[in-house]
Every structure is written in structure tokens, then in C-alpha cells.
Amino acid sequence: MTPISGGGRVPIEAVNNRFGGRVAVVTGSSANPSIGRSCALRLGREGASVVINGRDENQLATTEHELRDLGFDVVAVAGSMEDDATPDRLIAAAIDHFGRVDLLVNTIGGIRSPSTLEHMDKAALMGTLELNTWPTVALIQAALRRGLADDGGGSVVNISSGSPHKTTPSMIAYAAAKAALNTLTRTMAADLGPRGVRVNAVSPGLTKTTATKGMWKDDDGHSAGANVVLGHLTQADDIAAAAAFLLSDDARQITGVLLDVDGGNHLGGGGWTPITSKPETSS
Known about the structure:
alpha/beta, 7-stranded parallel sheet, 35% helix, Rossmann fold
């Protein structure tokens, strides 16, 4: 919401059309709450046409109907981002329905199973690395093949994590995977910048989403939020706001940035209590 004279407030979409005429693809955007869903809502409110994605067809259909009821141009593509065909299907949907692709939000991530160094096996490590990196790379590759860089104005946001800041022993594979994603983000930014494509990342700390529900459901996040520097738990909408900024022309001179959006959690040391996330979740 945005203030207006006289103390009233109007919806953000009434005053901000940063993405009018743009087409966005947002992965992992069906669960409620989730970072992907919040990103799709934020981009739609600011004028973008949006391709949403999720594995659960019923959940995805519900989200699609909700966005359409809000008046957004949206199309849903069901499928796992671990399926090699899904990235091309998402980009094809953007081209077929809206004629172009301009913006990508990559939210897919997770951990196969929390384990310490002594108990981690090769499959768990390599699977976690793949889950947190390859869907992002594959979607960007698919978008480049279909014109992301053609108009010199494409923009990508990858959803990373604050885990590389931490030293939680049982999260070693996940932290390594997100560190790899961060390096990919910076390197892709350098590679694609001359073609006009910006690539940035948002690094959430613990965020109130479906994937983290076990850590906040008992008291709606009050205890977890009390341990954050700013005193309250990060919401999915907070991540979406940062992603929208980085995707927009307001950030036209920003690329290769890893933006912590965690209420100041990155300022502290140590780790956090892990949960077992389902593979391929909105981070």
C-alpha cells in the first residue's frame, strides 16, 4: 500500500506500473504462502503478465484462478523443474500466450536430507547441489534461446539463502548448494551483462512460507522473529518486494548483487535449527 494525501491509502497497483508490457516467469509459485507466489502477485500487481509454475496441479490451478480474479494476465504450467522439459515449456508458454519473455524469478531449492559431514553421502550432496542450481541454469538457458536478451532489457532474480553465512553442521550440503548458486549468479551477471541481461539474487533468512511451517506454526512466528535483529519474522512478501526492485528499471545499474533480506539475521554468527524441506520447494 502507498500513502496518499489526506492520510488514506491506495493499492500499490494504482500508482505503480513498473512492469507494464513485461512478461515474467516465476517458478515454484503455487504454494500459499510461498516466495514464488508472492513474487507472482507482486509482479502482476505492477503490470506484468505472469507464467506461474508448480508440481501440484490442483494447488497451481487455485493460484491461477486467484490471480485471474484479481485481474492479472496469468497462465499456469504444471511440472517439476527437475524435469528437463519443464523450463522449455515455461518459456514456450510465455511466448505463446504473451509474445515475449523479460523477467525470470527462480525460486526452486531445498535439501534432500539434513546430515552432518560424517553422515552425508554423495547422493545427498550432489542431489542438493543439483536441485539448487540446475533448474535455475536451465530456465535461463531456455529463456535466452527464446529472446530474453534480444531487446537488451532482460532481468533475472535467483532466490538464494542466508545459509552460506551460517555454520549449521546438518545444513552443510544446503549451504554449499546456495553458495554455488551465488557464484553462478555473479558469473552469469558478468557473462550476460554486455547483452543487457541483469542477474541478481535475494538471500532470505528464515521466512514464513509453507516450506518452513514447522518452524513458525505454533506461535505464528513470534518466537522465531524475536531472534532476528529487527524483531519479527520475514514474510514472503518482503522477499517479493526486494525481487521486484531488482527486476525493475529502478535497479537498472545493479547486477551481480546478492541482497540479504532477513531482518538482519546475517549480522549474527552460528546457525539455525534445521528442518527437512521437501525437494523442490520455494526457498
